[in-house]
Amino acid sequence: MMKFHRYLHSLLIASCILFVTGFARGQGNLQDVELTIVPVAGNVYMVQRPGGGGNIGVFAGPEGVLLVDSLFAPMSDKLVAAVKQVSDEEIRFLINTHIHIDHVGGNENLAELGVLIFAHDNTRLRFLEERSRFPRAGGSFVPQQPAAARPVVSFNDTISFHLNGEQVQAFLAPPAHTDGDTFVYFPESDVLHLGDVYRTTSYPIIDQYNGGTLRGTIAALDKAIDIAGPETKIIPGHGLEVVGREELIEFRSMILDIQGQVLSMIQQGKKLAEVMAARPTAAYDAKWTDDPGWTPEDFVPIVYYELGGSGRLLDR
Ligand SMILES: [Zn+2]
Hints:
By secondary structure, the protein is of the alpha/beta class. The chain contains 11 helices and 14 strands.
């Protein structure tokens, strides 16, 4: 039994190393990545890396800076330098939109600078898990963040910041990408940061290992569309463009169409292989497959099983 455990353990470490090196290779050398800061609207800016992954929201004013997400740890110096281009004020607060490492990796470094970290209760609980699971590659593990990276303040529904003459609202979205998805809304600047619930690069990543669901994805998009006005600027978790309400509606329509097609095939008794062969995403693949790590082969089975298709995804 012990031998088997040891075998499992070494297998796990090996797959972790493979994943992390593969991940790093895919991202290039994280330390050498150039970050850019661009204005979004009002007092809100966005820090981006090439390819647009883990977009950071930056809310800056005379009373200090509030960040939304923290990228990867090796990028922290560059993140702070990018913020300095628009503000000399102290970075005081950080809100994590969810648990994934490309959004919380810089937490520990920022905490060392005295930044106070906020997240939803569910996201904070994910920091306490022994390992952190990542939805790509069939649910790979990454090492857990150190204790110093954990949110210091967690909230169970919504929290407001009163800073720089504006109110910043952070609140739990329905369980879409994960079960701790937090939207951050800047009503005066008219900007909405949706974390990874919305991305311009791929089909929605529904991380079932961290509580994400299709039903929640649609409900979360409903909520975002409801909040957004005609001029609201939307920061996606991934992707280089800031978008508006219309793009969110288009994204939701695409998901609803695929959901409808898959559901009718399930009602006809089709197996997953038959559904995949029918290519329910065919009309959208040209636009939504910019991310090689999340393809219809990842997305459609999640839709199929959540809608009641036979078999269970997690048993594969
Ligand atoms: Zn994510």
